[in-house]
TrEMBL record:
InterPro entries referenced in this protein's UniProt entry, alphabetically: Aldo-Keto_reductase, NAD(P)_OxRdtase_dom_sf, NADP_OxRdtase_dom
Domain NADP-dependent oxidoreductase residues, every copy: 19-310
Superkingdom as given in the UniProt entry: Bacteria
Name of the protein described by the UniProt record: Predicted oxidoreductase
A cellular-component GO term for this protein: cytoplasm
Organism field: Nocardioides scoriae
Amino acid sequence: MTIQTRTLGRDASLTVSTLGLGCMGMSEFYGTPDEQGGLETIHRALDLGVTFLDTADMYGPFTNERLVGRALQGRRDGVQLATKFGNKRGEDGARLGIDGSPEYVRAACDASLQRLSVDHIDLYYQHRVDQSVPIEETVGAMKELVEAGKVTHLGLSEAGPETIRRAHAVHPITALQTEWSLFTRDLEDEILPVVRELGIGVVPYSPLGRGLLTGTMLSEPAEGDSRATAYFPRFQGEALQANLELVRRIKDLAASKGATPGQLALAWVLAQGDDVVPIPGTKRVSYLEENVAAADVELTADDLEALDQAVPRDAVVGDRYGDMSSIDA
């Protein structure tokens, strides 16, 4: 079981593994954190050729970067390490808003480098767009990090079309990280045409619909899991039941392909283009191995049409976030 590579970006290209690994859930949000499981999963990912690792300073907060840094001790070479700044949090976990000021860009990068125990970050994203700071100022400060050798490639997360254009005019943007899955397809209308025009790669997060598309979730998430809160409407009550019915349709199609529902969902994302590199997250080696095997699931035009019919774009019930105010339009 090994995995191939894809290239993100045209003007500032970065070659990464075809699938990445989202590390967030190892430290926070989706149930109980599992540091040891996280370390084992990262090491197994590297063994399988999954060398594109994704974290952020706010995960934990701060503990996920430290975990990834520990996992990479003695194994940094050949890894494409991505992290993010902009969602400010206190050590106590308090959310302190979004900050895209040049001063914060510089301070956040230095802090991430220290926590990760590395001398450079391969792909540095603005996690959320700060509406109070011109994007030119934020990306200008990020560009200075490239010039200083602290960062090699720049990215944006959840940025709208006009913001992407303005940012790319300051410094080439290598990748846009945004939610994209069979359950979330709104970027296809306006954002996807822009990033492809500009030669920017796409890094879909939550390509498994925060676990819904794996087919393993049969009831509402347990207390203490962030998906059990109103912040994730798709997991609540009648919305969840309607969405699980869509998952059942995916299960039937997956069975006909000899795949799991999650593998079929990941194969669908991978089939959207060679400039697309999803980063499914997990803290378990078994799920990692299942995800990696999705790269070998080949979908025909008929398969893709069947999935479109099984999960129409407007069939999913509930917004992806209960509060969409931080998503740049």
